[in-house]
Amino acid sequence: MTDRRPRQTRGRAPRPRASTVFRLTEILREVLGAAAGFDDDLLALDRDPVLITRVHHGILESFGVSLPLDPLFEAPTLTQLAELVEQAMDGATRS
Questions:
Q1: Rounded to the nearest 5°, which phi and psi values hold at 13?
Q2: I need a labelling partner for 68 at 20 to 30 A (CA). Which of 39, 52, 60, 61 fits?
């Protein structure tokens, strides 16, 4: 039987949607010129503030949400970044 309860009520932190992760992967590939795995340390790939700003802009264009820049430095993996994007999208739809 399929669990149809909302994602946030299943008793554990929700995993980001595959579509969010895929779109972020594409943004990172375009900006950094390298693929990133789910648990790769994104900051180890490149700490250049200009590139981080370009990732921020890519998130804004692709998802329609603007994250503060600090979380981009505080969410070092693709999965964590996807979670932040989804939280921002959920907050934007409630506003």
A1: -65, 135
A2: 39
